[in-house]
Amino acid sequence: MQLGIEEIASYIPSNKISNLSMKESFGIDDSFIENKLGVNQKALKEVGEEASDLCVKAYVNLTKKKPIVKDDIEVLVVVTQNPDVKIPHVSAIVHGKLDLSEACACFDISLGCTGFVHGLSIIHSFMQHNGFKKGLLFTADPYSKIIDKNDKNTFLLFGDAATVTLISDNPLFVTGKFSFGTIGKQFNELFCHGEFLYMNGRSVFNFSAKYIPLDVSAVLKRNNMTLNDIDRFVFHQGSKFIVDAISKSLKLSKDKVPFDICSYGNTVSSSIPLILEKEMKKDNNINLLASGFGVGLSWASTILKRKD
Amino acid sequence: MDVTINTIKDIIKKEDLNVDVEGMEAEVPLKEYGIDSLDMYSILLKLEVTFEIKIPDEDVDKLDNLKNIMNYIKEES
Fold first, then answer.
1. Per the CB < 8 Å rule, is B42 touching A36?
2. What residue numbers bound the domain in which B12 lies?
């Protein structure tokens, strides 16, 4: 039985905040917003809306694309670091709201920008080991809960969203080998202790620019592939500046590196599946590379191959 | 390595920042040429790699023009 991604759906709140209105207060211009951040406006969840609510909305959008028999879902995983509450896990709350079968395993994964790629590996292994045929991998990390409105480093970047990936024995794309890494000594360069998120932009940039090109080479080697074998490089959409720096370092042509967060922002663990949702639909995309990097500081990457 | 203003200019040129590097003067703040805080991240990283030094965050504000960068590199490398 070969498991893989059958479908991806998402939910992006329609409520938006424009960065253009923040130019004066943060001392930035149109060029900085367009060419460096790559974020014109950020999606913002409703007040009182929680990660589980965003997941449910993504699931509703999944059912519009693909009929889902709820009793068939054997595992539900949520990637988040901004849960509804400390206890219980968000996945249990989502399970309840979706009224899924009691014979369904639920657990959360506490990871940020690498969470989707880690999550793919974890849910595949869990399903394979237990002989499961259908599972749901959610990402929902509403950073608006932890953003200081006066912090230029974070306020202009992050947006809210959720995605759900249907993993099944009828896949459209299957994963290759993975590559992972962590530099725990730098955990405090991007962390939340207390009310607000802190990000040392320079440290996160240095980490991304140094390590991610090397990791791309490593994951390609593990899969016996080269840069030329990849149709699209789906990087975590940290900012346009970071994605451009990695692309430049690897000498990738721009048309192979989608960047599309202009209207909703950096959505942390949702950023990669939001791009994959579109790229998987394009028939000429056979091999995709997904690379997440950030909180930890950590990275995770894999290859996604279109099933024959 | 003999570090000159031109050495620093050559490094900035490689960053492809869409600024007239040749026309830059040694003591004019880099931000006056349109180099923003994020551009500085990539310049600083390139300096660290090229000269095998570590530039702490607290030193970054000092490196606001070509001359100050050159002098800093001479001291640290």
1. no
2. 5-76
pLDDT in tens, A82-133: 999 999 999 999 999 999 999 999 999 999 999 999 999 999 999 999 999 9
Which residues face A133 on adjacent strands? Answer: none
> Which element (helix H / strand E) includes A26?
helix A23-26
Q: Which residues of A touch B60 (CB under 8 A)?
A: 202
Taken as a whole, chain B contains a residue count of 77
CA dihedral B24, B27, B30, B31 (to 10 degrees): -120
Cβ separation A205–B45 shorter than 8 A: yes
Q: Is the bond leading into A88 cis (omega within 30 degrees of zero)?
A: yes
ipTM, 2 dp: 0.82
Which of A134, A168, A202 is a domain's end point?
A168
What percentage of chain B reaches a pLDDT higher than 90? 57
Q: Are residues A147 and A213 in the same domain?
A: no
- Check residue A27 and give its pLDDT: 84
The domain total for chain A is: 2
Task: Please tell me the pTM assigned to this model.
Answer: 0.92
CATH code (residue A85) = 3.40.47.10
Q: Which residues of A touch B (CB under 8 A)?
A: 32, 36, 200-203, 205-206, 209-210, 241, 245, 248
- For A189-200, give one letter per residue: b (16+ CB within 10 A) or e: bbbbeeeebbbb
Q: CA A167, CA A138: separation in Å to the nearest integer?
A: 11
